[in-house]
């Protein structure tokens, strides 16, 4: 492996011989001196080369100067030289006076610039991601998932990986991708719903999964992708969806605290966003009540028994921020008519479910619920939704051989990150976005 010092560690390194590797960010080729800003995954630093002149000012042979003059932006190289601390140097207070430059891979002129359209930037995502502002979200994502994992592992949750090739739908049939599977059809998993629930009769107690989910949703909104990473958890022996919300908030507090500690300053500098670690409990509002609040603010959510729409979500989030100073709000007790058959309904009021959506900065990031675990009730609810019990038999079997009460949630990873960094579009928070018209790169 090439011996290299990460650029972020230069400030703490001693003056003297040093080697760094990275790509050329900018070049200033002046009459007497040349400057190259070199970038790696951790930062940027200035390389300097005073050109060779005779005492009378005539230029002397200078191979290094010629190499620098021929450099192109984006070229990957290894630089060796003398590190010198100098507080006048704006970029990190250090500079490397070059001894040598080994060009490793020359770059052609970049097809994108800062003002390129979003679509063009996505066409050239690997170049787009060289910009620190555009790659920061993936460092933040790593920290977030690490904190979530730590929470789960410390509490004995078991990690599972459910199959992404399925024999049936697990969410709305309208959003199903069909694939040829030998002599039959298979479907891409829309969520790990059925198989994360299976871990409960399997006796796992508490599980989590972070994995891909697919939705054949033809819409071009700023919050939808056809493939996204779903963060799921499911656990036994709950009394109601309240127990699920408690775990949900604790996970988010752990995740946001870790992000603030590690990236708060960089997020402020690059996105002008203050990471707020949420306080618990998050505000909870039954959906019917939320609709009344939103109506009082002058917005009528269309169709009385329907879901909250995007404007309604924005309005209720604005209300939660004004009323509680909170960026999150749980909308609870959704009507059974708009929830899947597997949601448990209220004891004594079958019109409502033990379920919730979590809104963050005005957009839904999660759905959670207590599941119906009583087989007879579950079959009734499936039939009521027009589902054929035979089609679901493999799932219904999970409830025929003993199963504890349980619940959980699914959360869209890119949505959380997009809303945290106040990015305009989910594709900015996705490594490689997939939408109705995007399958490349
Ligand atoms: P739901 O369908 O609400 O619930 O999905 C859960 C969360 O996944 C994210 N999400 C999406 N993100 C990007 N693009 C999409 N097309 C997309 N669709 C969904 C959202 C959403 O809140 N099985 C249940 C969860 C559960 O009850 O455990 C489910 O999938 O952030």
UniProtKB/TrEMBL annotation:
Subunit structure, as described in the record: Homodimer.
EC numbers, comma separated: 6.1.1.12
Pfam families, alphabetized: tRNA-synt_2, tRNA_anti-codon
Binding-site residues, ATP: 364, 412-415
Domain of life according to the entry: Bacteria
Binding, L-aspartate: 171, 215, 367, 371
GO cellular component: aminoacyl-tRNA synthetase multienzyme complex; cytosol
Reactions catalysed: tRNA(Asp) + L-aspartate + ATP = L-aspartyl-tRNA(Asp) + AMP + diphosphate
Family classification: Belongs to the class-II aminoacyl-tRNA synthetase family. Type 2 subfamily.
Role played: Catalyzes the attachment of L-aspartate to tRNA(Asp) in a two-step reaction: L-aspartate is first activated by ATP to form Asp-AMP and then transferred to the acceptor end of tRNA(Asp).
Stored Gene3D superfamilies: Bira Bifunctional Protein, Domain 2, Nucleic acid-binding proteins
Residue ranges, annotated region (Aspartate): 193-196
Protein name: Aspartate--tRNA ligase
GO biological process, one term: aspartyl-tRNA aminoacylation
The entry's keywords: Aminoacyl-tRNA synthetase, ATP-binding, Cytoplasm, Ligase, Nucleotide-binding, Protein biosynthesis
Molecular function GO terms recorded: aspartate-tRNA ligase activity; ATP binding; RNA binding
Domain Aminoacyl-transfer RNA synthetases class-II family profile as annotated: residue spans: 138-441
Gene behind the chain: aspS
PROSITE patterns: AA_TRNA_LIGASE_II
Location relative to the cell: Cytoplasm
């Amino acid at each position: 492996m090439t011996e290299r010092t990460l650029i972020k560690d230069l400030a703490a390194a001693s003056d003297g011989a040093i080697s760094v590797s990275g790509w050329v960010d900018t070049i200033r080729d002046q009459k007497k001196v040349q400057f190259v800003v070199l970038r790696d995954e951790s930062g940027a630093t200035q390389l300097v080369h005073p050109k060779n002149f005779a005492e009378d000012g005539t230029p002397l042979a200078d191979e290094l100067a010629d190499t620098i003059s021929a450099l192109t932006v984006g070229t990957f190289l290894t630089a060796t030289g003398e590190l010198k601390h100098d507080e006048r140097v704006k970029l990190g207070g250090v500079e490397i006076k070059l001894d040598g430059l080994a060009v490793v891979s020359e770059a052609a002129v970049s097809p994108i610039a800062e003002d390129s359209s979003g679509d063009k930037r996505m066409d050239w995502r690997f170049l787009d991601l060289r910009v620190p502002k555009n790659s920061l979200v993936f460092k933040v994502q790593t920290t977030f998932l690490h904190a979530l994992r730590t929470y789960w592992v410390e509490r004995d949750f078991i990690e599972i990986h459910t199959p992404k090739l399925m024999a049936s739908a697990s969410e709305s049939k309208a959003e199903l991708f069909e694939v040829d599977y030998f002599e039959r059809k298979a479907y891409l998993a829309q969520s790990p719903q059925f198989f994360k629930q299976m871990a409960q009769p399997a006796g796992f107690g508490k599980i989590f999964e972070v994995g891909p989910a697919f939705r054949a949703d033809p819409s071009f909104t700023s919050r939808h992708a056809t493939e996204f990473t779903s963060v799921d958890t499911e656990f036994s022996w709950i009394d109601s969806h309240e127990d699920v919300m408690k775990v949900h908030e604790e996970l988010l507090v752990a995740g946001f605290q870790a992000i603030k500690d590690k990236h708060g300053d960089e997020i402020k500098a690059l996105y002008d966003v203050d990471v707020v670690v949420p306080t618990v409990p998050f505000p909870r509002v039954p959906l019917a009540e939320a609709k009344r609040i939103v109506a009082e603010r002058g917005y009528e959510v269309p169709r009385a028994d329907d879901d909250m729409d995007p404007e309604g979500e924005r309005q209720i989030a604005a209300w939660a921020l004004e009323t509680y100073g909170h960026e999150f709000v749980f909308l609870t007790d959704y009507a059974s008519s708009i929830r899947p058959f597997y949601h448990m309904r209220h004891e004594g009021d079958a019109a409502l479910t033990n379920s919730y959506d979590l809104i963050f900065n005005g957009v839904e990031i999660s759905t959670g619920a207590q599941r119906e675990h009583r087989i007879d009730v579950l079959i009734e609810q499936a039939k009521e939704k027009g589902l054929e019990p035979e089609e679901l038999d493999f799932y219904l079997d999970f409830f025929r051989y003993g199963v504890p009460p349980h619940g959980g949630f699914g959360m869209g990873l890119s949505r959380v990150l997009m809303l945290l960094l106040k990015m305009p579009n989910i594709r900015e928070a996705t490594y490689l976005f997939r939408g109705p018209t995007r399958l490349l790169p």
